[in-house]
Design brief:
The chain is α+β, with helices and mostly antiparallel strands. The protein has a single domain, classed as Aspartate Aminotransferase, domain 1 (Alpha-Beta Complex), CATH 3.90.1150. The chain is built from 4 helices and 6 strands. It has a 6-stranded antiparallel β-sheet.
Length: 113
């Protein structure tokens, strides 16, 4: 899987917006102003949110992911060469977690799922 394909997965999420807030070639994907996926400028991993620190620890312990640098412990970094279905699942899941945590007003302004 390539950076471009992961960016396509992120862009396909309703209301997803791209930015490079720190400059230098980051791909930062947000919904309602909150990050749901992040590819660093090195471009070897995509960081995504999991539903808990326990899930993140499990993914790290089983070798599916690594600890996401600079992010909360509930975030993991998946290699871009991970199985495409795993990447797609984790991007969608992260998006839905972040979207669900938005205020009712912000969620109402987003396109439907």
């Amino acid at each position: 899987m390539s950076r471009e394909l992961v960016n396509e997965m992120c862009a396909a999420q309703p209301g997803a917006e791209w930015s490079d807030p720190w400059g230098g070639g980051h791909d930062c994907w947000k919904v309602g102003g909150k990050i749901f996926a992040l590819i660093g400028m090195e471009g070897s991993h995509v960081s995504v949110k999991t539903d808990s620190t326990e899930t993140a620890a499990f993914l790290i312990e089983t070798g599916v992911a690594e600890r996401a640098p600079y992010m909360h412990r509930s975030w993991v970094a998946l290699p871009l060469d991970s199985a495409p279905d795993e990447l797609a699942h984790r991007v969608r899941h992260s998006y839905r977690i972040i979207r669900a945590g938005l205020t009712t007003r912000v969620r109402a302004e987003l396109p439907p799922l």
